[in-house]
Every structure is written in C-alpha cells, then in structure tokens.
Amino acid sequence: MKNLIVAISILGLSFNQLSAQDIHQNEVPSVILNHFQKSFPKASDIDWEIKGNLYEVEFETGFLGDDHKILYSRDGKMVFHEEEIAKNNLPKSVLATINKYYSGYRVDDVKRISDNGKIMYKAELKNYSTEWKVVFDAQGRILQKKED
C-alpha cells in the first residue's frame, strides 16, 4: 500500500510538470513579450511558464509590489488577467454585497479578474471561525463562494 501511494505521488508530480513548465523570457514569442513589455514597462520579479497552449506570466508592479498573473494566447492576445487591488478599489456594488451578506468579516486578498473581457472580483472574507473565498461580478452578484 505504501509503495502504491508513493507511485501515485510521483506520477502526480510528473503530470504537474507536464502541465506547467517554467521558461526563460527569451523563450517567450516576441509578439507576447512585446505586448507585455508595452503594457507593463515597470514590471518586476517576472516569472514565465507555458501552460498548455498559453503563456503565463506572474509579476509585481508598483511601490508595494502588487501581484499580477496574465495568460496570453500564442498570438499575443491577453485572455486572462488577475491583479491584486486594495479593498477600497472594489466597486460600490461589491462592497454593498459584502456588507450585506458578510457583515463582520475582514476582507483580504482582493483581486480584480479579467477573463476574456469579463470583469470579476475575488476576495477572501474571514471572521474568527470561518473563511470564504468569494467571486463577484461587477454588479456585486455572488458568482461563486467556497469555504476555505
């Protein structure tokens, strides 16, 4: 039984390596790299990966090092962008929903997500005993919630 668990773990790690592979910036197609550098000229701590047919870049911007994750298609189109934002940058409609349904919860790890042009917001909502990861649309509707 122990050998089976070890074999399954090794196999799982192998598949994980196949699904995402770290690459050097000089391996990124120029159409993607040019678009990225034009859009984020002051990006720092840049890491590139290939995930299937997409190129993923994780990086930081700004004085406080706001985190970003972007997925580009092979033709250089940005298909997904997740960026860390401050709670006070959430739309009023999202804040109103949080205040209505999660009164007394602390708001952490707020992200703005653009997925093929659709804007969403993700936040961790915590109180003394419970933590939720909640995704909202721009109108403040809850799209997904998961207890963490």
TrEMBL record:
Domain Putative beta-lactamase-inhibitor-like PepSY-like: 21-78, 81-143
Name of protein: PepSY-like domain-containing protein
UniProt lineage: Bacteria, Pseudomonadati, Bacteroidota, Flavobacteriia, Flavobacteriales
